[in-house]
Amino acid sequence: MRKIFILAALALALPTAVFAGSSIDYTNVGGSLMGSNGGLSLTGSVLVSVNGPNGLITGSDLGSVTFQTGQLTSGSLKLGGTFAAGGSFTITGNGTNGIPNGTLFQGTFSGPATWTLITLSNGTHSYTLTGSLTGTTGSGMSTVATTIQLSVNTGKGFFKGCTKLSSGDTNVVVPEPGTLGLLGTGLIGLAGVVRRKINT
User: Fold this and answer.
1) Which one of 72, 127, 155, 170 has the fewest CB atoms closer than 10 angstroms to its CB?
2) C-alpha radius of gyration, the chain, whole number
3) What is the pTM of this model?
4) Cα 89 to the center of its chain, rounded Å
5) 155 forms bridges with which residues in the sheet?
6) 74 or 183: which leads in pLDDT
7) Do 73 and 82 contact (CB within 8 A), yes or no?
């Protein structure tokens, strides 16, 4: 019985190894942040940097970043709050400087996204949106990501439903194919041991 317990614990730990691979950092600038109680959306933001296993690639226009959150569930657009999970998040490359042409990441907010008011010492305001994502890479592999999007300083006024984005950063975990192979081999071996144990 103890061996089965240890094997079960190992089986639960193995899936975390799938995300032990490297990550890719996507940086975007500009674009319009539009918000209402129905959600926050970004359009027109330009991808300017991709930093991953193959090194840093920069350019004035490598693609685009767009998103739509779920609805506002607490707080307010003016003072900060929380948006529900759901919506969409897409990073697209345009084929420039070796960046693939097409979808690089497509997903959704996997949990609440936090909209935070930042009041600077001079009394002016900025906002950040932070959230966790689940989705797929351009090659179709399931993955997770985190994003932080920073608004342009709104002066001493507050967000009134539309502002410009200063910059954003999205970190996408890229599962290693070798790790996926190890996971599959481990699960097959585990199934064999459990089957043998049941038959005895």
Assistant:
1) 155
2) 21
3) 0.78
4) 8
5) none
6) 74
7) yes
